[in-house]
């Protein structure tokens, strides 16, 4: 097994086991509501898809607050997450959506395509060497004329690690914002809007884009 494959598998296992062992829900999702900039981007996403459209959420976590919000707005939501604990929580929180445990690449575009694909705080948990492949996969999953809403890393992180994040080990990986946007566009999307989200300890780039 090559070193690249070993790195990809190790990072996935670190993310999966870290979320299973830690208290992500307690620290980041309890009583979490949609923020103003998120609501604005969601409304612009919804304007680009049918009122009863289907949305795929890659890295759905516990379903709160994003999947709950999309279901309440009348959309059909399918969520995918690597973490078994998160999938069980999402099914409790948002019983009207469908949630499955698995890798993002397990979703087969030959079986179903979606009016929109969203992914929040998840893509940077995958080695950045896979981001181009993942964005192309997301494009394959998106219907012609559909849209995506993604959060990407705020800057260069080849492999950033914390040993006590929400009570467990966690890792992140991303390119610069410029490189990430280039990958979104090369996957076949037109950038509609971006929003740079910064807090004391986190830095994210929100991207709304349409499939060409």
Which helices and strands occur, and which strands form pairs?
Elements: H1 3-21, H2 24-29, H3 36-46, E1 54-58, H4 66-72, E2 76-81, H5 84-93, E3 98-101, E4 114-119, H6 131-141, E5 142-153, E6 157-165, E7 168-174, H7 177-186, E8 189-198, E9 203-211
Helix pairs in contact: 6-7
3D structure, described in words:
This protein is of the alpha/beta class and 212 residues long. The protein has seven helices and nine strands, in the order αααβαβαββαβββαββ. The protein has a seven-stranded mixed beta sheet with strand order 3-2-1-4-5-9-8, sandwiched between helices.
Brief characterization of the structure:
With 212 residues, this protein is of the alpha/beta class. Helices cover 35% and strands 32% of the residues. It has helices at residues 3-21, 24-29, 36-46, 66-72, 84-93, 131-141, 177-186; strands at 54-58, 76-81, 98-101, 114-119, 142-153, 157-165, 168-174, 189-198, 203-211.
What string, H for helix and E for strand, traces the elements in order? HHHEHEHEEHEEEHEE
Outline type: globular
* Strand order in space, largest sheet: 3-2-1-4-5-9-8
Low-pLDDT residue spans: none
How many helix segments?
A: 7
Major β-sheet profile: 7 strands, mixed
Write down how many β-strands occur, each being a DSSP E stretch of 2 or more residues: 9
Helix/strand structural class: alpha/beta
Give average pLDDT, whole number: 92
Helix proportion? 25-40%
β-sheet strand percentage = 25-35%
What is the terminal separation in angstroms? 37 Å
């Amino acid at each position: 097994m090559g070193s690249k494959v070993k790195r990809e598998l190790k990072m996935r296992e670190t993310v999966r086991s870290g979320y299973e062992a830690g208290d992500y829900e307690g620290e980041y999702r309890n009583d979490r509501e949609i923020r103003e900039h998120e609501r604005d981007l969601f409304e612009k996403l919804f304007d680009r898809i049918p009122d009863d459209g289907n949305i795929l959420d890659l890295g759905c976590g516990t379903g709160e607050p994003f999947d709950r919000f999309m279901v309440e707005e009348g959309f059909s939501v399918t969520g995918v997450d690597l973490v078994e604990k998160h999938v069980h929580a999402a099914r409790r929180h948002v019983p009207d959506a469908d949630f499955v445990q698995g890798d993002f690449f397990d979703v087969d575009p030959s079986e179903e395509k979606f009016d929109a694909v969203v992914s929040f705080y998840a893509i940077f948990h995958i080695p950045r060497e896979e981001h181009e492949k993942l964005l192309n996969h997301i494009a394959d999953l998106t219907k012609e004329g559909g849209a995506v809403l993604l959060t990407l890393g705020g800057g260069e992180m080849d492999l950033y690690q914390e040993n006590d994040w929400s009570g467990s080990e966690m890792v992140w990986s991303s390119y610069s914002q410029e490189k990430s946007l280039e990958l979104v566009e090369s996957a076949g999307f037109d950038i509609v809007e971006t929003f740079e989200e910064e807090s004391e300890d986190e830095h994210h780039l929100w991207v709304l884009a349409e499939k060409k």
